[in-house]
């Protein structure tokens, strides 16, 4: 049914699934994005996880996985995936790790990784900096509210 609600026809969706089954990386990523767009986080996670076999650092795929993990409250899986990448200095992984910690309620770790995201700003895109600053503001607001109690 979801195929009718998108720019995909059922035939296109079937062809993409067949291509993914025979190991086409791009088709696998397209399926992950398709299911993510329609809020089917289980299938988005399934295909995005499969895509990790092809590329462990693809930003679009990491964003899909982060959204799926947060929606399903799979915070330990999120940490398991993003922590090693974040420790290597991957900015997007640092941000997604901070976001996962934020949703899990681990505000101190979220703050730590959000601040790491903002280090060396000359190598980052303005949108990435703004997203990290916004997350840090949300973290600080929650921390202040907790400290007042």
Output the keywords:
149 residues, mainly alpha, 8 helices
Characterization of this structure:
This protein is mainly α and about 150 residues long. The chain is about 75% helix and about 0% strand. The longest helix is centred in the C-terminal third of the chain and has 23 residues, at about 125-149. The N and C termini lie far apart (about 50 Å). It is elongated and about 55 Å long. It contains eight helices and no strands. Residues about 1-5 have low confidence and may be disordered.
Q: Which helices and strands occur, and which strands form pairs?
A:
Elements: H1 10-21, H2 25-37, H3 41-51, H4 59-71, H5 75-87, H6 91-104, H7 107-117, H8 126-148
Kindly summarize this structure in a few lines.
With 149 residues, this protein is an all-alpha fold. It has helices at 10-21, 25-37, 41-51, 59-71, 75-87, 91-104, 107-117, 126-148.
